[in-house]
Amino acid sequence: PICIPLNLWGNGAFILYPDGHVQMTYNEYTSTSTQKYFVTDNWTPSDRWMFSLGAAWLRVNRSGWDFQYPDNQGGFAHPQFGVGDIDKTFDKATPAFGVRFSPDKNNQFYYGVGETFRAPPNTAIAIAEATGRPDNVPETAWNNDIGWRYYGGPFAANLMLYRSNFRNK
Question: Distance (Å, rounded) from C-alpha 140 to C-alpha 92?
């Protein structure tokens, strides 16, 4: 069977409390601004070798508000049923390094390592603020990839091992 929503625009078919009032849990508005600056350079001491080194700086600002409606069972900690001013900034510098060896024109062996960074999602920040929980911690990860590439006429192949070590996922 095909599921067809009762209302595509969310202005009808509400869930109601037993007394007939529309059930509302929370109202949230969030905004995100992101800045990223990076620099990278490649060094090729010979036709067979290439080394890459880079760094990036990422800054993410999450702002907005989050309110719970009265009589909701969500359990916001603040007596005003939410947070009127959310303003959190997260920033981090992340390095990257890579090396590639090409023994001939058809084969390449490579290795790369780098760190990634992700600010907590807007909703997670808003809920933590509204419920009085500790601040969310950004997610970081170290990523490693090692592999072999082959290019021969109309044929190309890539064999790679990839590992990511997440923290605060």
Answer: 9
**In whole angstroms, what is the distance from residue 85 CA to residue 27 CA?**
13
Query: Tokens 């036709």 correspond to what residue?
Result: 47
Tokens of 19: 């007394």
User: CB–CB of 88/127 below 8 Å?
Assistant: no
CA distance 132 to 158: 49
pLDDT, tens digit, 9 for 90 and up, residues 23-75? 666 677 888 999 999 999 999 999 999 999 999 999 999 988 877 666 665 55
Question: pLDDT digits over 82-112, tens only?
Answer: 677 889 999 999 999 999 999 999 999 999 9
Please tell me the distance from the alpha carbon of residue 98 to that of residue 145, in angstroms, as a whole number.
9
User: How many Å apart are CA 167 and CA 138, to the nearest integer?
Assistant: 9
**DSSP-based three-state secondary structure for 153:** coil
Tokens of 156: 């190309």
pTM above 0.90, yes or no: no
Give the DSSP per-residue string, 113-132. EEEEEEPPPHHHHHHHHHHT
* Residue linked to tokens 């719970």: 68
Residue written as token pair 């939410």: 82
17 φ/ψ angles, rounded to the nearest 5 degrees = -70, 165
